[in-house]
Design goal:
The protein is 33% helix and 25% strand. It is globular and about 65 Å long. The protein folds into 2 domains: 179 residues, Rossmann fold; 240 residues, Dihydrodipicolinate Reductase, domain 2 (2-Layer Sandwich), CATH 3.30.360.10. The chain contains 15 helices and 18 strands. With 465 residues, the chain is of the alpha/beta class. The strands form 3 sheets. Strands 7, 10, 11, 12, 13, 14, 15, 16, 17 and 18 form a 10-stranded mixed β-sheet that branches. A 6-stranded parallel β-sheet has the order 3-2-1-4-5-6. The chain has a two-stranded antiparallel ribbon with strand order 8-9. A hairpin with a 2-residue loop joins strand 17 and strand 18.
C-alpha cells in the first residue's frame, strides 16, 4: 500500500525510498518483494546549517547515501564554519570522508532549494526560530526531514509541529529528530537494567520532592568540537532564536525518561503528561566571554534587551517537575560558560525501583567520566551478579565491582562510543526507517509528548516569573 501511494505524490522522484531511493530493488510495478535490480542513492540536502550538529552527521560515510550533498544557505560565517568542519572530516589522516559539497549561497536560498530537485532528505540543524518554518515547508513539499533538536521551542512551534506530523503522514514522508543519547552506552545499560524485574523490581511512582526519575545536566557555551574550539553563532545566546534552556538540551533528557521508563510505549500527551512546577534563571556572560565564544567584538543589537550592567543574561538554566503516566520526574539543566580544565559537559541520571536504584554519576569522584551504579537495596551480591550475567547476553564484556555501598558497572572500552559518533548511529537508524517506509508506531506520539513537556514547562516558568 505504501509503495503505491508514494508514487501518487508530486515530486515523486524525491520520495522513492521504498521503491528506489534506498533500494535494494526497483521494478516497473513496484509490487511486494520485487527482485533486486538497481540501487539508487539517497541524496541529502542541508538547509541553512547554523549548528555544528549538521556537520557531525557527515563525520561518517554511508553506503546508502550519495556523496554529493547540496547545501542551501545565506552567505556568512555560519555557512563557512559548517564547510570547514565537513572539510576537516574529508582531510583527516585516519579514515577520511569523501563528501562533495554543492553550495548555493544567497538570500533566496529557500526559493532556490524548493525550485530544484536536488535531494530527497533534508537535514535541518540551525537557528531554532526558523526550524519549525523550515520543517513545515519541507514536509508540505513532500520531503523527508531529519532535524536536530529541538523541533519546537514554544507553544506556537509545538502546534506547527503537530500539524507537520499530520501532513507527513498524509504525504508518506518521515519527520524525525536526532536523539543521540539513546546510543550512549551508559543510558543503554541503565535502561536494560531497569527492565530486569528480578533486580530492579518495578519503577517507583515517587513524589514532587522525591521523584522516581531524575535527569540533570551541566553544559558549557565554550568547548571543543572535533578537537577545535567551537565558534557559536551570536544568535545562540538569544533565547528567542535558540530557545530557553527549558526547551533545548532538556529535549534529550525528557526523551531519555520516556525511552527508559516506557520502552516502545506510545504516549498520549493529553493524558499521560502533567506539568507540576517549572522555573528558570540566567547564565551571566561577560563581553570577553562572548567575544571568545562567537569571535564577535560586541553584543549585537538584538541581544541588547538581555544586557544589564554590560553583562549578557541568557535564560539557559531551568528545572521542571512533572508526572508521566503518574511517575514523578524531574529534569534540570544548567549552563556555565566554560568547564574547568580536564572536565566537560556532565550528566546525572537516576531511576528508583522497588528492589534497586540505578544511578549514573559524572562528578569529581568519577573523574568527570560517567559511571553506572546499582544501589542494590535488598539485593544480595548473588542477585546482582546474576543480573550482570543476564546483561552480558546483550552487552558482552560488562562486569561489576563493589564501590562502597554501590555496585559499579565496569564497561569495556569498545562499548564506549563518543558523543560525536552517536550521530552516525542516528543516521543508520533513520535509514532503516526510510527503507521500511515508516517510523515505529510509538515514535511520533512520543516526539509530540516530548515537545509538549518542554514547551509546557517553559509556559509555566514564564507564568511563575
Amino acid at each position: 500500500m505504501y509503495m503505491r501511494k508514494i508514487f501518487s505524490i508530486p515530486r515523486a522522484s524525491m520520495l522513492t525510498f521504498s521503491c528506489g531511493a534506498l533500494l535494494l530493488f526497483a521494478n516497473s510495478s513496484c509490487n511486494t518483494k520485487p527482485e533486486a535490480k538497481t540501487q539508487e542513492k539517497i541524496r541529502i540536502i542541508t538547509l541553512d546549517p547554523g549548528h555544528f550538529h549538521a556537520a557531525l552527521l557527515q563525520k561518517s560515510m554511508y553506503d546508502e547515501i550519495d556523496s554529493v550533498v547540496h547545501i542551501y544557505a545565506p552567505d556568512g560565517s555560519e555557512l563557512e564554519n559548517h564547510m570547514k568542519l565537513v572539510e576537516s572530516y574529508n582531510s583527516r589522516p585516519d579514515n577520511p570522508t569523501s563528501w562533495k559539497s554543492q553550495v548555493y549561497r544567497g538570500d533566496d536560498y529557500l526559493e532556490k532549494m524548493f525550485s530544484e530537485d536536488a535531494g530527497n532528505v533534508v537535514i535541518i540543524s540551525g537557528n531554532n526560530k526558523s526550524k519549525t518554518k523550515y520543517i513545515t515547508m519541507a514536509i508540505d513539499s513532500g520531503m523527508n526531514v531529519l532535524a536536530d533538536k529541538p523541533l519546537a521551542i514554544d507553544n506556537t512551534g509545538f502546534k506547527s509541529l503537530e500539524a507537520a506530523f499530520k501532513t507527513a503522514k498524509d504525504k508518506n514522508v518521515l519527520l524525525y529528530d536526532i536523539m543521540t543519547e539513546r546510543y550512549n552506552i551508559y543510558y543503554m545499560l541503565q535502561r536494560e537494567l531497569s527492565q530486569d524485574a528480578e533486580l530492579f523490581g518495578t519503577l517507583e511512582k515517587g513524589s514532587h520532592d522525591n521523584p522516581a526519575v531524575m535527569q540533570e545536566s551541566v553544559h558549557h557555551f565554550y568547548k571543543n568540537v572535533s578537537g577545535k574550539p567551537l565558534v557559536r553563532p551570536a544568535w545562540f545566546f538569544d533565547v528567542e532564536q535558540e530557545g530557553h534552556g527549558l526547551v533545548d538540551i532538556t529535549t534529550h533528557m525528557v526523551d531519555l525518561i520516556q525511552w527508559e521508563c516506557f520502552p516502545e510505549v506510545a504516549l498520549d500527551y493529553t493524558k499521560d503528561i502533567k506539568m507540576l512546577s517549572a522555573k528558570q534563571w540566567p547564565t551571566l556572560i561577560s563581553p570577553e566571554q562572548f567575544r571568545k565564544s562567537t569571535k564577535k567584538d560586541q553584543f549585537p543589537d538584538y541581544l541588547s534587551k538581555y544586557v544589564k550592567n554590560n553583562t549578557l543574561e541568557v535564560m539557559s538554566n531551568g528545572e521542571m517537575n512533572y508526572t508521566i503516566k503518574d511517575v514523578h520526574a524531574r529534569v534540570s539543566i544548567k549552563w556555565n560558560f566554560e568547564a574547568p580544565d580536564g572536565t566537560g559537559d556532565t550528566h546525572f541520571s537516576q531511576m528508583r525501583g522497588t528492589k534497586a536504584n540505578l544511578v549514573i554519576k559524572q562528578g569529581k569522584e568519577q573523574q568527570f567520566k560517567p559511571v553506572v551504579y546499582i544501589d542494590p537495596m535488598n539485593n544480595t551480591e548473588q542477585s546482582v551478579q546474576a543480573a550482570i550475567d543476564r546483561l552480558q547476553k546483550k552487552f558482552s564484556g560488562v562486569s561489576v565491582k563493589k564501590t562502597g555501598d554501590l555496585w559499579e558497572i565496569v564497561i569495556p572500552e569498545n562499548l564506549k562510543v563518543g558523543h560525536e559518533d552517536h550521530f552516525a548511529e542516528v543516521v543508520k537508524k533513520y535509514l532503516q526507517y526510510l527503507k521500511a517506509g515508516e517510523l515505529p508506531s510509538w515514535e511520533v506520539p512520543n516526539m509530540l509528548s516530548k515537545y509538549y513537556t518542554t514547551t509546557q514547562a517553559l509556559e509555566m516558568a514564564k507564568a511563575n516569573k
